[in-house]
Amino acid sequence: MLSTTGARPNGWHPGELAVQNLLALPQLVSPEAIVQALPRQHSLFHSTRLHFVPMTTLDRKARPWTSILTARDGTIGFISSSSETGLTINAGLWPGDPIAANLSGEAKNGKNVLISGVGVELTTRRRNKFGGYVQKVLLEDMDLTLEVFVNEALGQCPKYINIRTLASHPSTSPELIYEHLDMDASDRLPAEVISFVHASDAVYLATSYVAAQIDAERFPSHLGTNHRGGRPGFVRVRPSDGRTLALPNYSGNRLLNSLGNIQVTPLAGLTFPDFATGSILYITGNANTLWGKAAQDLMPGCNILTTITATGFVFVRNALPVRHGPGIDMEKSPYCPPIRYLAEEDPPARVATDVDLQLISATIHSWNLGTFTFEAAEPLVVLPAQSAVFDLSDVIRERAQKFIPLVDDPRRANDDCVRTWTISVPTSRVSLNTFSITIREKNEGLATHILFEIARTLGGNDAGGFVDLRSYDITAKLRSLGADHYALDPVPAAEGGRRLLWAAGGIGITPFLNLLDQVCQLVHPSNGAWDIVLVVSTREPDVTLQLIWRSLSSVQKRGPSVDVKISIYLFSHRPVVTSPLPNWVSVTEHTGRVQTSPNFFKDIGATDRDCHICGPLPFIQSVMAGLELAGVDAEVVRRERFTY
């Protein structure tokens, strides 16, 4: 069993670096995103919103297991936090829960045993993980009190979390069905357990990083707990041995913490909860990550997957005191890809769910900002501020090389080719088949670079021009339409109309472009007045104002309207040269970055507006600091960042 008092370093450990280099990924997220304490928002989140928390511990063979800790009656409030480094958990256990045995020895004797967890609110997809070590443990009559010192915290990717509404279900009768902690070489998982895996749409992945002596001081050992989600059956069990589970890797925040841990310490645990029946399956085993051809040979169509060969498992029925609320079913995440089956399986006949797309045009607004328009093979219903989940395999791996020179880039083989972008121009009454995305070409980005290079090449490098791409047969797949994060209610929130504050950093303007179009449809005396303040930070003020004006196209013919007031506060290091906006849309220019002084946000009326922020993490943090200083409750501010 591992113990440590060291904090998480501000750097990626050797396993994480190895995996990032193997995939030739740019460093999209700084290691500084992992903070060495528990942010206040995380503390409140864990203590006031969660029905359960998955937590990882090691057994005496250093194998990781994840437990699902809950209050005895499944209610919220079983977690408390008295400091930025402390969590106290009061949970009720059931027979077979591995944490009881894992914490029975050294932790009771005062040793700092490693532990990790992840708080997930399934209703909203909010999620935060944490790690540290056990300071104190008390276990009496299956009631557990656990004090944890937290020295690392990080937000996780929400994309594959399927939505559930949970409720307390205190009437449980846990029944330990299987408890095989040490499987023989010839053992297989029972058919009932395999069926349970193939019916699951969520699993919690436990990993560990055991530091080599040479790395221990700089990169101390630690544990990891992560959520993995998909469509029911996304985790497969190999029929040939009946004990090896195949977990496909879906593109998330690209930190690759779990894969990095497995690269150094090839062990992992999987815990499958069933919130309909209360059953729970714990598995631990030997882990291995397959890449490229090796992954494809095992699971065709999957370029990265992890196998876990079970060495121990526990299955308990009717254990969880948290279940689906009455009449509530799971709402599948729109990001979840279709199930991929193992090469040795006989997959059932099924209907493809992806929609065929064709890239029909591109408009390059500046050297790295452009709008790309797609036509779908069937009509779509696109809600305001929705995102689209694209499968760009054909573009990246096949079609691109016909138009632009491509070097031998390993990312083309290892990349899953799935991207999510916010829709900036929705389908219209004229055509329900076309929609547009406005994106920025990222430094060292693969998908955006290819799209922009195709547009530049076929458009003759006209940096400001429209490129008709319909005749080039550039195709993609629409996997799904993402969640509607910012939908507007046409009924005013209060007497006097709707008062909104939108803050956009860079390409974070895209959901608000879509929403402006929606507002134009809603503006009517019967819906009350709309008062919108748009705070924008941009390197391209003229282009941004042109995009805003395009979104206001449905009111261009109306002229000034008493039903809508739009005030734009534009922060940029460049002055506005020409603005297409009329005088009924006010534009106030500011030099530099968005101000964080409370006076600025008070002056623009932030305290009595619905506040939404979209942009990169530093921008969100800066705006949040200003809003909180102005007296805005951080819990009611909607935030969306483009990290993932």
TrEMBL record:
Known SUPFAM superfamilies for this protein? Ferredoxin reductase-like, C-terminal NADP-linked domain
Task: Fetch the InterPro entries from UniProt.
Answer: FNR_nucleotide-bd (IPR039261), Split_barrel_FMN-bd (IPR012349)
UniProt xrefs under PANTHER family: FAD-BINDING, PUTATIVE (AFU_ORTHOLOGUE AFUA_6G07600)-RELATED
Q: What is this protein called?
A: FAD-binding FR-type domain-containing protein
Source species: Calocera viscosa (strain TUFC12733)
What is the phylogenetic placement of the source species in the record? Eukaryota, Fungi, Dikarya, Basidiomycota, Agaricomycotina
